[in-house]
Amino acid sequence: MGRDAVTSTDVARRAAVSQSAVSRVFTPGASVSAAMREKVMQAAVELGYRPNVLARSLITRRSRIIGVVVAYLDNQYYPVALEMLCNVLQQRGYHILVFMASQTHGDLDHVLQEILDYQVDGIVMASVSMSSDLAAQCDAAGVPVVLFNRTQDDERLCAVTSDNFAGGRDVAWFLVAAGHQRIAYIAGWEGASTNRDREAGFMQGLKEAGVGLFDRSVGDYDFEGARRAARELFQRPAEWRPDAVFVANDHMAVAVMDTLRHELGLKVPDDVSVIGYDDVPQAAWPSFDLTTVRQPTDEMVAATVRILLDRIERGVNTPQRVALQGPLIARGSARKPEV
Hints:
This protein folds into three domains: 49 residues, 434 Repressor (Amino-terminal Domain) (Orthogonal Bundle), CATH 1.10.260.40; 129 residues, Response regulator (Rossmann fold); 131 residues, Response regulator (Rossmann fold, 3-Layer(aba) Sandwich), CATH 3.40.50. Helix content is 44%, strand content 16%. The chain is elongated, with a radius of gyration of 25 Å. It is α/β, with parallel strands linked by helices. Helix 1 packs across helix 3, helix 5 packs across helix 12 and helix 10 packs across helix 11. It is built from twelve helices and twelve strands. The protein has a six-stranded parallel beta sheet, covered by helices on one side. A six-stranded mixed beta sheet has the order 7-6-8-9-10-12, with helices on both faces.
């Protein structure tokens, strides 16, 4: 029998079960006994049967596809987060389609229309923010949205982040406790909630410790932007440059460390302490040994999936905001406080 001609009826006949039993076996999350699953799967393998997922989606009105929108993947944090998100959703019977979009309104508008054309069951926005207009379009289409590693002031939107404010404050306390007085900050993209909240927490921590911000520059969450910011802050005589810098994410912190060491001839942490945010895998490499705030990515992904599937499968419409605190990981790029 040809592969294209095999139907669920043929499988049911071969396995000596009902057609509804075959349907349950191939429906993610459906209740079916282990013995029944084994019998049906054996018959399916023998016949070369695979269910037509697209046809089923037309019947159930569920594609079991989640659209994920990201602005860039050069930041090492997002490939790690996307891999976790993909694995968790696959375990729940869903798959992801990744869409790239810049932060500009026109580009996001176009990408959103493309996503909705795929009749996705839900959307995760990672590293990008939505306008109120785009949020309204998703609401009108009945497609739930969860912001990942971003938040914004729109009561319709669910959001999952690390506790960026608390992380920034912890960095300030750590640097002051280590004896630093000329403390600088290199900001990310200033339109992002991550930068806003990390900087606000950092400034609050400095204030509580009785220390003012020595200097500030902007790297826009960009590798070359961070290198320019480092030159701006550190191409000065020793008494006029910072003795410590908090960089808004690890992607930029790595660029800052390379610039300090290999271009400006400064020693880290002897001349300047450097702290990042995210704890990407490269942060633990011996060549960087970066002190950083760890994002609890596994917990963030779990919360994102829970909120999204609550909305898709249970019709939960109450917006949820989750902020999960992560620890400061002390490594060798920053002077440590004396115990």
